[in-house]
């Protein structure tokens, strides 16, 4: 009986081994075959996408060649006109009417929007249509033609006023309302008024032997015939699968100015803009974009190339592309069929293999599940496998032992890490405190060295300049006294000399005040901010009278400030004058005073706000630097720097807020007088 049981156990073990070997032998089918299938699908997908990119690249080449052909043809046609016998006969007859008729006939025949003849001085001899104003004559196209490089052609961007000088109809045709488009670069513009023009010029000789240029051009804005011709050339009938459609677009900068892309049924997407990613790659980096892109309302296999004007600057883009959806659907359908067939075959065979190999997979799954739990942070997870005689069971038991050791090591590491973090935080806090002290000391040292150097230079400059000024002023008075009544004949000149000498004296005084503010410090006293503001307004009334500026007062401060009254007036007058200068066309000047607390200290804030031109962030960062000015020839760049020094000396601060086109607000904060 025992012998039979032993033989049965031996038979079962042998059968189990056979099943396991069979499963191991068939296992590569479930691993290698899917891997090879995945690689094949990946390669096929890559080749499929590469084919689409190759096609759209070829489409872009055709569109580029058509545009190049248009440029070349325009130049050749102008060259032919400049060499024609009829043109020279009309020029020789000196009949402007006949020349204008010839230009008008030729312009309509070759499909130009304008055509004119200009000489080397920029004078227009004849034009079609009649020009409204004198056009620009410094275009590189015209310069090249006049120098003998014929024909000269290119794409140029005309401003709306330049188009209006040629024809108001062209200026109106170029105007496009911008349509809000997702994923574009933010802009404050609402319309595009510039025009992209196929610009060509050819050298012509005048009867007197002088050089002239025949200049012609075609406006591409809303030129639907041009863009539809490109689309018909690139995407002829049956060139794309059913459901796809080809599109072509011409961009000025990132705005669609001529396109057959539909915004919705019956309306073209004129005025929409390209995405920020495409704009950066094509216009920013000058690269040709060959990839999938979202165009207005759907995904297209797209090709964009930059357009360069006659100055060599990237000014727009040429685009062609076709709808991606039909190709994607065909690709996905193929993938679904392949994957579905593989899944069906696998589903029919895998249950059999799993049933045979369950004794192998179960321990492995327990080990895998335990490792996953540990990876998610559960260090107490264990396989809890019983001690078995096979290798997999021993591995599971050994894994539990290793996990026990890892859990203990993790606990120790966490304790050491926490202790290390505490020490690092302490050292970091000490280091940050030391760095702050070092930065403050360094800034003070640099400022002291700068002020010392400026003080020495300024003292020498003041001495060297004030003596000649005194001599000049004295001699000017002597000249006036010598001339007597005749001095009135040069009254304006004498006044200008007096003003400039006084200006030099003021500049020297400001330099000295900036370099040695302690020598100009006056005694301090308590003041109500409202009274100081009231005293300042008469000092700038002559400037207010020259403009249409409304002054608004809002005095709500109940506290007093401690400062020399003249110095505080100097600061406020400087801020008010700057505000007036920022509103050359008029506006509103608002003066406010109110109680405010800053950094735990009670104080008073005085605001000087304007509705002027405003300042950019870069300018705001520099306005308190010595010698920095935005007034060019009128300013010294010391006003705000001196004002900041005066206020800081009393423990206060001047701050500025501004935005271009929205005005500025300067806030003077001073501690409360105690």
TrEMBL record:
<dbReference type="Pfam" id="PF00512">
    <property type="entry name" value="HisKA"/>
</dbReference>
<dbReference type="InterPro" id="IPR003660">
    <property type="entry name" value="HAMP_dom"/>
</dbReference>
<feature type="domain" description="Histidine kinase">
    <location>
        <begin position="460"/>
        <end position="674"/>
    </location>
</feature>
<dbReference type="GO" id="GO:0005886">
    <property type="term" value="C:plasma membrane"/>
</dbReference>
<keyword id="KW-0418">Kinase</keyword>
<dbReference type="GO" id="GO:0000155">
    <property type="term" value="F:phosphorelay sensor kinase activity"/>
</dbReference>
<feature type="transmembrane region" description="Helical">
    <location>
        <begin position="332"/>
        <end position="354"/>
    </location>
</feature>
<keyword id="KW-0808">Transferase</keyword>
<dbReference type="InterPro" id="IPR005467">
    <property type="entry name" value="His_kinase_dom"/>
</dbReference>
<keyword id="KW-0597">Phosphoprotein</keyword>
<feature type="domain" description="HAMP">
    <location>
        <begin position="358"/>
        <end position="411"/>
    </location>
</feature>
<dbReference type="InterPro" id="IPR036890">
    <property type="entry name" value="HATPase_C_sf"/>
</dbReference>
<dbReference type="InterPro" id="IPR029151">
    <property type="entry name" value="Sensor-like_sf"/>
</dbReference>
<dbReference type="Pfam" id="PF17202">
    <property type="entry name" value="sCache_3_3"/>
</dbReference>
<dbReference type="InterPro" id="IPR003594">
    <property type="entry name" value="HATPase_dom"/>
</dbReference>
<keyword id="KW-1003">Cell membrane</keyword>
<dbReference type="InterPro" id="IPR004358">
    <property type="entry name" value="Sig_transdc_His_kin-like_C"/>
</dbReference>
<dbReference type="InterPro" id="IPR033463">
    <property type="entry name" value="sCache_3"/>
</dbReference>
<protein>
    <recommendedName>
        <fullName>histidine kinase</fullName>
        <ecNumber>2.7.13.3</ecNumber>
    </recommendedName>
</protein>
<keyword id="KW-1133">Transmembrane helix</keyword>
<keyword id="KW-0812">Transmembrane</keyword>
<dbReference type="InterPro" id="IPR003661">
    <property type="entry name" value="HisK_dim/P_dom"/>
</dbReference>
<dbReference type="Pfam" id="PF02518">
    <property type="entry name" value="HATPase_c"/>
</dbReference>
<dbReference type="Pfam" id="PF00672">
    <property type="entry name" value="HAMP"/>
</dbReference>
<dbReference type="InterPro" id="IPR036097">
    <property type="entry name" value="HisK_dim/P_sf"/>
</dbReference>
<keyword id="KW-0472">Membrane</keyword>
<feature type="transmembrane region" description="Helical">
    <location>
        <begin position="21"/>
        <end position="44"/>
    </location>
</feature>
């Amino acid at each position: 009986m025992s012998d039979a049981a032993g033989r049965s156990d031996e038979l079962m073990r042998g059968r189990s081994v056979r099943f396991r070997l069979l499963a191991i032998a068939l296992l590569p089918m479930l691993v290698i075959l899917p891997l090879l299938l995945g690689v094949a699908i990946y390669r096929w997908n890559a080749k499929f996408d590469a084919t689409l990119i190759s096609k759209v690249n070829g489409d872009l080449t055709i569109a580029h060649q058509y545009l190049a052909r248009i440029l070349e043809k325009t130049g050749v046609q102008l060259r032919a006109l400049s060499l024609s016998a009829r043109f020279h006969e009309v020029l020789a007859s000196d009949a402007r009417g006949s020349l204008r008729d010839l230009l008008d006939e030729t312009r309509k025949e070759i499909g130009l929007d304008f055509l004119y003849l200009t000489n080397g001085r920029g004078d227009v001899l004849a034009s079609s249509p009649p020009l409204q104003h004198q056009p620009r004559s410094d275009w590189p196209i015209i310069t090249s033609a006049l120098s003998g490089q014929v024909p000269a052609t290119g794409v140029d961007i005309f401003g709306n006023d330049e188009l209006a000088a040629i024809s108001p109809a062209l200026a109106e045709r170029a105007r496009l309302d911008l349509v809000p488009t997702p994923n574009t670069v933010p802009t404050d513009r609402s319309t595009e008024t510039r025009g992209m023009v196929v610009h060509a010029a050819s050298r012509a000789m005048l009867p007197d032997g002088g050089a002239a240029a025949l200049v012609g051009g075609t406006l591409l804005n809303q030129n639907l015939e041009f863009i539809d011709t490109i689309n018909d050339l690139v995407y002829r009938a049956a060139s794309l699968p059913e459901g796809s459609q080809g599109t072509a677009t011409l961009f000025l900068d990132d705005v669609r100015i001529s396109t057959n892309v539909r915004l919705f049924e019956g309306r073209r997407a004129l005025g929409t803009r390209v995405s920020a990613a495409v704009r950066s790659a094509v216009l920013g980096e000058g690269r040709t974009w060959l990839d999938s892109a979202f165009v207005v309302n759907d995904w297209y296999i797209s090709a964009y190339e930059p357009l360069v004007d006659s100055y060599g600057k990237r000014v727009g883009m040429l685009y062609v592309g076709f709808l991606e959806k039909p190709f994607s659907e065909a690709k996905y359908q193929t993938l679904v069929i392949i994957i579905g067939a593989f899944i069906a075959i696998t589903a029919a065979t895998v249950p059999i293999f799993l049933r045979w190999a369950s004794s192998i997979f179960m321990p492995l799954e327990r080990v895998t599940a335990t490792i996953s739990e540990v990876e998610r942070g559960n260090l107490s997870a264990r396989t809890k496998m019983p001690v078995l005689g096979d290798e997999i069971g021993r591995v599971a038991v050994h894994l539990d032992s290793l996990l026990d050791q890892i859990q203990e090591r993790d606990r120790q590491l966490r304790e050491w890490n926490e202790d290390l973090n505490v020490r690092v935080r302490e050292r970091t806090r000490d280091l940050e405190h030391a760095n702050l002290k070092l930065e403050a000391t360094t800034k003070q040292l640099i400022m002291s060295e700068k002020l010392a150097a400026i003080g020495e230079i300024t003292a020498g400059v003041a001495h060297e300049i004030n003596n000649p000024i005194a001599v000049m002023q004295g001699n000017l008075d002597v000249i006036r006294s010598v001339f007597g009544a005749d001095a009135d004949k040069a009254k304006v000149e004498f006044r200008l000399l007096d003003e400039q000498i006084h200006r030099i004296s003021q500049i020297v005084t400001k330099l000295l005040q900036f370099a040695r503010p302690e020598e100009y410090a006056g005694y301090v006293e308590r003041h109500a901010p409202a009274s100081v503001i009231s005293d300042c307004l008469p000092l700038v009334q002559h400037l207010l009278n020259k403009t249409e500026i409304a002054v608004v007062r809002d005095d709500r401060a109940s506290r007093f400030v401690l400062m020399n009254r003249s110095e505080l007036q100097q600061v406020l007058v400087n801020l008010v004058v700057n505000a007036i200068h920022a509103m050359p066309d008029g506006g509103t000047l608002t003066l406010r005073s109110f109680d405010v607390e800053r950094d735990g200290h009670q104080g008073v804030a005085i605001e000087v706000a304007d509705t002027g031109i405003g300042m950019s962030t870069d300018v705001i960062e520099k306005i308190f630097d010595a010698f920095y000015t935005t007034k060019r020839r009128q300013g010294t760049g010391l006003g705000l720097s001196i004002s900041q020094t005066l206020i800081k000396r009393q423990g206060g601060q001047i701050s500025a807020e501004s935005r271009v086109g929205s005005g500025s607000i300067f806030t003077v904060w001073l501690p409360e007088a105690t």
